[in-house]
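Open question from group meeting: does this chain pack into something compact, or does most of it stay loose? Before anyone orders reagents, we agreed to write out a predicted structure and look at it together. Recording both the input and the output here so the notebook holds the full record.
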Amino acid sequence: MLGKTHSINPLLFKDMMIKSEEHILEEKENINAINVFPIPDGDTGSNIYYTLRTIVEEVKSIDEGNGNKVFQAISKGSFIGAK
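Structure tokens returned:
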């Protein structure tokens, strides 16, 4: 099916980011504990969480009626929150 495109509902994706942050917060210490590659620095779970936290801050600041800005907010939050 070459050429067929799919789209993601931006408000659903916003909710997915919020839930992802919640789940990573619950599991970040477990992720940190298994973080051994390429360097066993034990901070991958924390880094993922801090990035998601910033993404969620950005998407929560968007007016519910403006779903088109969700992806821009995710991009901005990813850039700002990346560790």
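Observations to bring back to the group:
The chain has one domain: 10-81.
The helical segments are 10-34, 44-60, 70-81.
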